[in-house]
Design brief:
single chain; Luciferase, domain 3; 2 domains; 15 strands
């Protein structure tokens, strides 16, 4: 079954069944996951709440993929040269591309309706970023030469923004937080664009809460709202926030919250807990990731509440309100 067909079949009614099937296969095929699950004696889950989530730190120290899998690409987490960066070895990029396009279009509409403007200088410099692969894919599939990386040059961004509108396309700006802030201080009007901040000051500016950051960007870029995504190197799917508060997952991705002091207990809706992610697009690595992020589940999405103490500051949209 093709990647897009596999993901499109997943819904709330069959999610648990497919997740348990995925666990059974990955438990057998991925050595480090097998060892970790066996060490905890949790090899036979019957429900989602009984599945063991692999701590995200293992992506720094081990190859999280089946034995003898052929690697198509390796994505590295953001970070300095002094930090150990996570490595997500991907053996089938079609799952990433299918998850990206299907997930994007269910929120924003057809990729071909947009001109994509990338303001991601630090990611371009680091290289091997899953975010750059994501934006590259959107740029290519948009089918217009206007889409591309424009760093943070005001005149270039304004010019392509205006050309996009003249060609009846919607400008869509992907920007790392500090580059968007730099742009917003140059009195540039991007009122008809979708602005999606990917998080992270990367040491260039003082960290701001998401609320303050969005207020500054809304005012400086003259837009009614700022969009966000929740994604990371170790995942092949993204959740999007379109209202400034709650992130929503595609049908093949689910957030579950664990007790910060007992990783095998889950907390109720509305309570703060550690974020566990089930990403069924991760068919060829591990679909069950225990992150270092804190959040709350709501009836119609989830919110971010910062990070667990002593965890590294990295990734997308991990700002603390």
């Amino acid at each position: 079954m093709l990647a897009d067909q596999f993901l499109m079949q997943i819904n709330s009614a069959n999610f648990e069944e497919i997740a348990l099937q995925t666990f059974e296969r990955q438990y057998k095929q991925i050595p480090i996951y097998n060892q970790y699950v066996n060490s905890l004696g949790r090899s036979n889950p019957k429900t989602l709440s009984q599945i063991t989530f692999l701590p995200i730190e293992f992506f720094k120290s081990h190859k999280v993929l089946p034995t003898n899998a052929q690697i198509q690409s390796t994505f590295l987490s953001s970070g300095t040269t002094q930090q150990i960066r996570s490595k997500h070895h991907v053996s089938d990029l079609s799952f990433y591309e299918a998850s990206l396009i299907l997930g994007f279009e269910r929120i924003f509409g057809s990729v071909k309706d947009f001109v994509f403007i990338g303001l991601l200088p630090s990611y371009l410099q680091n290289g091997d970023s899953s975010l750059i692969y994501m934006v590259d894919c959107l740029i290519k599939k948009s089918g217009t030469d206007l889409s591309g990386y424009y760093l943070d040059h005001k005149q270039n961004v304004l010019e392509v923004y205006q050309k996009a509108l003249l060609s009846h396309k919607k400008p869509f700006v992907f920007g790392v937080s500090y580059a968007l802030l730099d742009l917003s201080q140059q009195e540039i009007n991007l009122s008809e664009a979708i602005i999606l901040e990917t998080g992270g000051m990367k040491g260039r500016r003082q960290e701001l809460s998401k609320t303050v950051l969005h207020q500054k960007l809304q005012k400086g870029l003259q837009v009614p709202r700022i969009y966000s995504e929740y994604g990371m190197t170790e995942l092949l799917s993204q959740a999007y926030c379109i209202d400034g508060t709650l992130f929503k997952c595609p049908p093949w991705m689910q957030i579950r919250l664990r007790d910060a002091y007992d990783p095998f207990s889950e907390v109720s809706i509305g309570q703060k807990g550690g974020i566990n992610v089930i990403d069924l697009a991760n068919q060829n690595s591990c679909s069950f990731i225990q992150t270092d992020d804190l959040g709350r589940l709501h009836s119609d999405g989830f919110s971010l509440e910062g990070r667990l103490a002593a965890s590294d500051i990295r990734g997308c949209n991990l700002l603390v309100d």
